Amino acid sequence: MLKVEGLTKTYRSAGNALTVLRDVSFDLPAGSTVAVVGPSGSGKTTLLGLCAGLDRPTHGSVTVAGESIGGMDEDARALVRNAHVGFVFQNFQLIPTLTALENVLVPVELAGDATREDEARALLARVGLGERCDHYPVQLSGGEQQRVALARAFINRPKILFCDEPTGNLDGETAAAMVDLVFGLNREHGTTLVLVTHDLELARRCQRIIRLKGGAVASDEATTVE
Amino acid sequence: MTFILKMAWRDSRASRRRLVLVSLSVVLGIAALVGIGSFADNLKLTVEQQSRALLGADLVIQAPRAKFTDEAEAYFKSLGGERSSELSLGSMVSFPTRGNQRRLVQIRALEGGFPFYGDLVTEPAGAMAKLGTGDYALLEETLLIQFGVQAGDEVMIGQKTLKVAGALKKIPGESAAVAMFAPRVYISSAAMEATGLLKSKTFITHREYFRLPPARDPDAIVKDMKEKFRKQRWRYSTVEERKRDLGQSLKDVFSFISLVGFVALFLGAVGVASAMHVYIRQKIATVAVLRCLGASARTSFAVYLVQGAGVGIVGAILGAVLGVTVQVVLPVVMKDLMPFTVHFFVSWPAVGKGALAGLVICLLFTLLPLLAIRRVSPLLAIRSALGETPAADPLRLGLFFAIAAAILGFAVWQTGHWATGLGFTLAMAVGFATLAGVALLVSWAARRFVPRKTLSYAWRQGLANLHRPNNRTVLLLLSLGLGTFLMLTLVLTRQTLVSKMLGIGDGARPNLMFFDIQDDQAARLAAIMKENGAPLLVEAPIVTMRLSGLKGRSAEDLLKDEKSGVAAWTLRREYRSTYRTELSDTEKVTEGKFIGRVAPGEARVPVSIEAGLAKDLQVKLDDTLTFDVQGVPLNGYVASIREVEWQRMQPNFFVVFPAGVLEAAPKTFVAAVRAASPAESARLQQAVAREFPGISAIDLSLLLQTVMGILEKVAFVVTFMAAFTVMTGIIVLAGAVLTGRFQRIRETVLLRTLGATRRQLRQIQLVEYAVLGILAAVTGGGLAVAGNALLAKYLFKTAVVWSPGVLLVAVLASVAITLVTGLVANRGIVDHPPLEVLRQET
Predict the structure, then answer these.
(1) How many domains in chain B?
(2) Which of A81, B185, B228, B306 is 20 to 30 A from B198 in CA distance terms?
(3) pLDDT computed for residue A119 by the predictor
(4) Do B13 and B74 belong together in one domain?
(5) A18 at B interface, C-beta within 8 A
């Protein structure tokens, strides 16, 4: 489902070159779950960005759902994201001017499908926000905002879901509920899950943990949980 | 497409009020264009519909200072239709009930049914009908006002005392400006005879007004008459010709006013661009998320383009509505400059054109900040900043070219001239670049030079606001600076012109002119003036002549030859030339050498020609000229070319002869003295009138009042238009403050959390806006002083007037406007509860 080969990313700024990711390779089958862990500055977010097609690698290739996105321009990658990828961000990233329901509908409406409102309401109900469809982000708590983001991530039935520190801004109890939801929905939809986190306990709930250090893969091992 | 529209609408939800406010920036500019355009169309149609009333007749023929020949009389009879004749001459009138105060007027005796078209307006109505009794005179309204005379009072014209029948307010064929130098006084032919003026005056103008039978074409008649009466230098006016001339001058006036309106639009568009820039910056996170969720660069761009277009469309609609209101006001503003009453109607094409021009300019400017959206990386959703600096955007450069092209296109479209359009575009570029340059310099200086240790916290923060991110320094200096610049330039230019005419600093300059002085009266007049303590300062002989030949060709020949390039007026006019031994202080020789005296009998007389006349005559040094001096041919050549300061109210001449040639020719004199006060002026005039009632006098200070009155009216119209720019500046400023309000609230809340008092917060705002206001005013004032100096030097050719008082008032007004707008738009910021702010997203 996600194949990464020899991924390297170097930033050039003011004449200096900074390599933040070097020669990273892995292959994820459909429906699998993987956690990317590592200290700050180890290249986790860069790797996520490259895997999701948000940026282009300096070297190497990324294949998402059978499509090699390395040679695509930004708009073509946007189409791939819309069709196959879901996102959950650390800081929720809801659009402040849209209601919860409208936020959930954005990916499908972007694809030209205006008939999925019932499904969006059902998804919001599934994450426990059936009564909050018409609320704006500013009227929701952090945990509620993150659940709306989760519903948005699943509305276009993505093949792969990228979560960037999904519990980073939540308290312990809310974070636990959120994690249960992510894994529950993942199972229900058979989605491949890529989770970037500092939280080792959360990472251990995935089938596989890739550890990054200084931009390179330090270890890549299966966990004992399912 | 549906998504784009839906998203644009939903996303605007929280900002609609702010976006409407942004659109207000262009409303006044568009309103100005729409109002002016629609009013100009009203005028055009009025000119079309009332064209015959413009002239009052189908055809007017004028014989200056001569009678029509018998042959012409026979020709006039053959034309058929209706005819009205008028005699007019310049003479003094005096008011016995007002201490015999005198003024030069045009006395007219009108016979027949003129005006045939349009209305003759008098107060009381029907006053004209009283003239037939031979005991009444109808006086121009300004004359009644000037001397405080009323209907029924007495007026002395020549040897006859008449009663004032009323005030002449309007007569077709002429605008009030015609009567600026000499107001019109209508009397009957019988009364004219009784005044005795027909005998004493040599310069009597005859006019014939015709209402032609429908089948007669006035322009064909003019063509025929010009052929038949080739030797006569009559002036012909037809409706078509009047329409053409008026149309052209109205077009010139309106293109100028439109350009002033356009400055307001341009400034508003800069305001829109600036506000949209802040708005878009706040939307970057949303765009990044949209990109993550699969929106293409084009789609995200389109979402905000729709919002930007919405701003433009709302601005255009509101502007169009307000423009129609402006159109209602314009006739009131311009009524004194219009020769007729204008029919009001809304010209939809003009409304459309104005709104469209506004929309295009607004959109082009909105695109500047919008272009950035195309380059928002989806990575920004997971990172707060990118490691790489983006490359320059070539489309941005293209957009700047498009904006320049749009301005140029508009200016050329309005003025109809490439050179004027280009000049306007360049002037805009220089003005804006200067103001923006000063703003950047100020920002830089505030960062670099503000002492951090000695200043109080409020001053440091206030000054730091001049250079911190999201500062309004450039925008504010542009808007208020430009407004101050325009308004102040007007004020200073007006002062420069006034002082030039008054001759400030030269208390000895003559201000009372006498003319129509006969040869045998000159010596006695000089004596009278001396006895009264006001010796003659200027005395110049005047010899009337015509130009009969030029460079070996006759004037008739040149007039027939359309390709000769010689302006017809130069060949038709009667020259009132003088002779003297030296130049006056209003003259400067630019080519050749002035020769002041020649021996009598010189075969080729060296003459000095005024520069403008030399250009229209197409003559160079040494070219030959033949004058017809009341029947005697006189050969001359161009010995020098002079520049003349016509604005200085002194006897000035197109052609100056050397002494030694014209002394024997029939001549009159013009003389000038200095009267210390209006009372002395009246006393001197009466002293002259007692001995020489035929000598006319003009008090230049009275004339100056009239000229000032007209200048005031023109200045009022221009000030009215410049006010659009100033108002736009205020709206743009308020918009800028409100757009950055959220950010300010965050900062203020943070400062408050950290312990700042309300007083400190208010002081910070006060310092920031006061400094900005002062800088805007000083920069705008500096530009105005520079602009005025350039105008004075190159256009008016006079000394610059410094007016510290006016400058100070302008600076204080600018600072006050900035402070009030800034503080009002920011009101309540210091009262915001921190929690509300920290939770808010936009």
Answers:
(1) 4
(2) B228
(3) 92
(4) no
(5) yes
Q: Does B417 touch chain A (CB under 8 A)?
A: no
Residue B505's pLDDT is 41
Reading phi first (left if > 0) and then psi (alpha if -120 to 50, else beta), residue B291 is in alpha
pLDDT digit string (tens) for B796-809?
Answer: 667 777 778 877 88
Partner residue opposite B289 with nearest CB, options A11, A90, A93:
A93
Q: Domain limits at A140?
A: 2-222
Quote the distance between the C-alpha of residue A64 and its chain's center: 13
Cα dihedral B741/B742/B748/B752 (nearest 10): 140
Residues B758 and B735 occupy one common structural domain = yes
User: DSSP letter string over B609-660?
Assistant: EEHHHHHHHT--TT-EEEEEETTEEEEEEEEEEEEE-TTS-S---SEEEPBT
The total of structural domains in chain A comes to: 1
Check CB contact under 8 Å for A81 and B387: no
Determine the straight-line distance between the first and last CA of chain A, rounded to whole angstroms.
19
* Residue B175 confidence (pLDDT): 61
pLDDT tens per residue across span A121-142: 999 998 889 999 999 888 898 8
Looking at residue A5, what is its pLDDT?
92
Chain A: give the shortest CA distance to residue B10, in Å. Answer: 6
For residue range A52-89, what is the model confidence (pLDDT) as tens digits? 888 889 999 999 988 898 788 888 888 888 889 998 88
Clarify whether residues B259 and B327 are in a common domain.
yes
Q: Are residues B425 and B412 in the same domain?
A: no
Residue B292 forms contact with A (CB below 8 Å):
yes
The answer to whether residues B726 and B836 belong to one domain is: yes
On whether both B571 and B465 belong to a single domain, the answer is no
Containing structural domain, residue B764: 418-505+714-842
pLDDT at B838: 47
Query: What is the predicted pLDDT for the residue at B504?
Result: 42
Closest Cα of chain B to A161: distance in Å? 12
Q: Report which of A29, A86, A87, A26 is spatially closest to residue A60, judged by C-alpha positions.
A: A26
Residue numbers of chain B with a pLDDT score lower than 50: 504-505, 838-842
